UniProtKB/TrEMBL annotation:
Domain Phage capsid-like C-terminal: 133-402
Compartments, as annotated in UniProt: Virion
InterPro entries xrefs: Phage_capsid, Phage_capsid-like_C
Protein name in the entry: Phage major capsid protein
Region Disordered: start-end pairs: 62-94
Regions of compositional bias (Basic and acidic residues) in chain numbering: 62-83
UniProt superkingdom: Bacteria
């Protein structure tokens, strides 16, 4: 972690301490915020959110600067600075193929299917610190595409189960709707049969696509990070479209999102506009049975504005349940549980499912093949623009509807 990031994180911790002091003072005097205090609280929370964005931007900028320096070192045939006199490795044939396709070099294909190499584990593709190993791993074009998809969809960060298939025919996957039960059996008595109940979930292959057009001059400019730009733009676009359906999809002509099949855990009290209390959050946690709530992929999922409301929440001993992360790449926590924020989760409101908690590995995401990436010089021939398109085929559904994932809903009135 650089000194700049350390200072920003220290500032973030300091701002949080100021916000806590403000809330504590009002709590000690058993009153709500006055107008000035509410304004200060809102300002401090806005600064926390701004610092989060700045920390991420600095980390991304430092990584881009490092990659640029490595690229210039290779162009100038300089020794690799990380390894003393050891020269930088030549780019792989796969990277060369992608670059040739993007620039339209002679003999290059017009389209490619970008796939991961080796066993795919999407949970490792979120932003990590350099100290955690990011400096030792080269980022491929595929990794950049998927990384930008994950940054826009918290569901893909949450440890969901990924099913990858080479073809797109409909898959019938059994899903658990109830578990077996046991009972005391008398000597020589018959043992009752209690079978688990199963339903079926169909996982199809909905196609998501995006097109990006760049001028010929921009593509021909060797100083432009064309791969990084296209990976960022198309990855975010696909992530926004697919990610929205992984949360709110109805299952009709689109994936079946998490909210379609989560189980009711807690209903907020009337008169709270659906904003959960500390008791609501604890009740939600314990409404999920131990095997699910203790799973490594257990987490809270909510919108950013819901996190802002929960920053005031305390336990019975007066300790804040929201815990800011002091480690780059690690999420904030509520109690001891990671908080993942997704822009597609509903805000707190009457009848709104504003918070989901449980074992996200019980949600299955199906991806067909790789991400198809194609180039056309003819589509916008009259304007001398080069058109790129990225296509993704996927689906999603919750495979355990017995309570692996539960939600908080705002009271109807």
């Amino acid at each position: 972690m650089s000194e700049v990031v350390k200072r920003l994180r220290e500032r973030r911790a300091n701002v949080w301490e100021q916000a806590k002091a403000l809330a504590d003072r009002a709590a000690d005097e058993n009153r709500n915020f006055n107008g000035e205090e509410q304004s200060s609280w809102d300002t401090l929370n806005a600064e926390l959110d701004a610092l989060d964005k700045r920390i991420k931007a600095v980390i991304d900028g430092e990584q881009r600067a490092k990659e640029t320096e490595e690229a210039f070192s290779r162009l100038e045939a300089k020794p690799d600075q990380r390894g003393g006199d050891q020269a930088a490795d030549d780019e792989s044939p796969e990277v060369a193929q992608v670059r040739a396709m993007l620039r339209g070099e002679a003999g290059a294909p017009r389209g490619i299917e970008v796939n991961p190499t080796g066993r795919t584990n999407f949970r490792t593709l979120s932003k990590l610190t350099a100290g955690a190993g990011a400096n030792t791993v080269k980022t491929s074009f595929y990794d950049q595409l998927v990384q930008n998809m994950i940054e826009t969809s918290a569901v893909l960060q949450a440890g969901v189960t990924i099913l990858r298939t080479s073809s797109g025919e409909t898959m019938q996957v059994p899903k658990t709707t109830s578990h077996s039960t046991a009972a005391i059996v008398a000597e020589a008595a018959s043992i009752g049969v209690s079978d688990p109940s199963f339903g079926q979930a169909s996982l199809g292959a909905f196609k998501y696509g995006v097109m990006v057009q760049l001028s010929r001059e921009l593509v021909d400019d060797a100083s432009v990070d064309l791969e990084g730009y296209l990976a960022m733009e198309t990855g975010r676009a696909l992530g926004n479209a697919f990610g929205a359906h992984l949360v709110t999809g109805t299952g009709t002509n689109q994936p079946r999102g998490i909210l379609a099949d989560t189980t009711l855990g807690v209903t907020t009290a009337t008169g709270t506009s659906g904003v959960p209390t500390a008791d609501n959050m604890l009740d939600l946690y314990y409404s999920v049975i131990a095997p699910y709530r203790n799973a490594s992929s257990a987490a809270y999922l909510m919108k950013d504005t819901t996190v802002a409301a929960l920053r005031k929440v305390k336990d019975t001993t007066g300790q804040y349940l929201w815990q800011p992360s002091l480690q780059a790449g690690a999420p904030d926590r509520f109690g001891s549980v990671p908080i993942l924020t997704d822009p597609f989760m509903p805000a707190t409101a009457l009848n709104a499912k504003s918070v989901v908690f449980g074992d996200f590995s019980r949600y299955f995401v199906r991806l067909v093949g790789g991400i198809r990436f194609e180039r056309s010089d003819e589509f916008a021939f009259s304007t001398d623009l080069i058109t790129y398109r990225a296509l993704l085929r996927g689906d999603g559904a919750l495979m355990d509807t017995t309570g692996a994932l539960k939600h908080i809903v705002g009271a109807a009135t």
